[in-house]
Amino acid sequence: MRRGSVRARAAWGATLVVAVALVAAGIAVVAVLRGGLADNARLEAENAARAVGAEVSRVDAGGVGEVDGLDEDEPAQVVGAGGNVLGSDETLRGRGPIADFNRVEGDEDVEGESEEEVLALPLEDGGTGDFSVVAVQSTLRDGTPVTVYAGASLEDQQEAVSSVTRAMLLGLPALLAVVAGVTWLVTRRALRPVEGIRGELAGIMASTDLSRRVPEPQARDEVARLARTTNETLAALESSVERQRRFVADVSHELRSPIASLRTQLEVGAAHPELLDVDGAVRDTVRLQELAADLLLLARLDAGERPGEGRVALGALVREAVAERRPRPVRVGELDEGEVTGSPGQLGRVVRNLLDNAQRHAASEVRVAVRAAGEWVELEVSDDGSGVPEGERERIFERFVRLDEARSREEGGAGLGLAIARDVAERHGGTLRVAGGSSFVLRLPKG
Questions:
Q1: At the N or C end, where does the chain have fewer CB atoms within 10 A?
Q2: pLDDT digit string, tens, across residues 186-233
Q3: Which among 172, 207, 242 is the end of a domain?
Q4: Does residue 291 contact residue 419 with C-beta atoms inside 8 Å?
Q5: Residue 433: enclosing H or E segment and its boundaries?
């Protein structure tokens, strides 16, 4: 597995989680098993002690050694109040009180008349073993108090716990290997479409062919959504690059005409000063200056330039723009003093572009008004011309678009005015649309 790959990290992570879970579960299982077996041994010892106690209560001190229960395989002992041993089974006979044997676990559990602890007691083969020993209080037939001890071997408990622990330790590595392998294979299968997407993107970058698309899996999962989003991004990028190419081509075309005209006039003037058309040269220079300004503004808008945060009164902008209009008059209607937030320069350019467009197409009159409309401020510029055909009302907002291709460039402009106006409107949170064919409505939120 390659270090650092998603598959490797997923496999190692899953293995680690499973390992921690199995170790915790194993510890819990062993603890429960140990506790259950210890409880069984304690119950067995307590039952034996009570059985011996019941028998002891029927005899005197001299007959304790013959009672039932002291001849069983498990250790048992009856001790008098003074600590003297009254009776024991074969393994404890002659060895003193059972309470004097080594304690393996120091905890005591007192319940009613019984006490329990784990002691190391002798076995028949001469060794020692751990026993759960329970002490039960009883009395002889004459009322003399005695303590009855009985033990149950913990060997089976220890062997069972050891067997379970060994099985877990032996099975854990194999189980973790299976988990790691399965996780690796599943992750590899799940990420195979991602690798396909990556490879196709690498090919697209190498070939610069933005018309290509990455494969989209049939499944409705995150990888499929990633592929769809990637293809949408590629489509948007392709469209953006295509727009940029058209933009460069259109700019080159638009610049060629005034530059060629200006060069021709200057060359003629250099050879024949009396033939120099100064006014024509000035007009071409102004056209170049205006076109350069429009292109610079479009470049800033495309780069995501944010509008200003100043307060702008559209009514004041309209009055200022109308005062500059020549030669066709502009009829001014209602001018609401509602303010909007934005760039005075950019919004002033929108007003001038709309007025220029209206004057270019008007038969005799241009009308302008500013009014409040709830949370919006609307600027309407209209003319009495033929209007925009319904099928062209969105196309006219595209860059370098002229509906009347026969119109001269001197009269028609470069076809950037409405495109700039809409871009500025949208970046100010507003809209610009054609209403009724010959009316343009700019809608901006109140500041």
A1: N
A2: 888 877 888 888 888 888 888 878 888 888 887 777 888 888 888 888
A3: 207
A4: no
A5: strand 431-435
